[in-house]
Amino acid sequence: QVQLVESGGGLVQPGGSLRLSCAASGITFSMFTMGWYRQGPGKERESVATITSGGYKNYGDSVKGRFTISRDNAKNTIYLQMNSLEPEDTAVYYCNARRKYFGNNYWGQGTQVTVSS
Fold it and tell me: When comparing pLDDT for 117 and 68, which is higher?
């Protein structure tokens, strides 16, 4: 019954902005570390941004200064604000919910982001 549903993907021009959302259900949302991961063409899956239950954030080196992760525990939702988008950001973006010490690890279905050039 755990569901992570991403939305907000689409086609944007280089330099543009996009905001992704991930709505979670079936988990005690506030207890989970949440994150965004992506997989581009011919690339391995990589971590984009994570945010712990206490609000501590980590970003992948390639997106630091351009992307911002946030969470709204009242809405069981995380967001990824993406600015100054580059063609290299083109990927399927996946939402993740994790509790490391309990072995809980859940994934959404993904949303496509395409940055055209």
Answer: 68
7: left (phi over 0), alpha (psi -120 to 50) or beta: beta
The token pair that represents 6 in the structure block: 């991403």
Q: Which positions ≥6 away from 115 have C-beta within 8 Å?
A: 11, 12, 13, 14, 16, 85, 86, 87, 88, 89, 90
Taking the mean position of all CA atoms in its chain, how far away is CA 88?
16
pLDDT of residue 65: 97
Please state the φ and ψ torsions of residue 26, each to the nearest 5 degrees.
Answer: 85, 5
Residues 6 or more apart in contact with residue 9 via CB below 8 angstroms: 18, 20, 93, 111, 112, 113
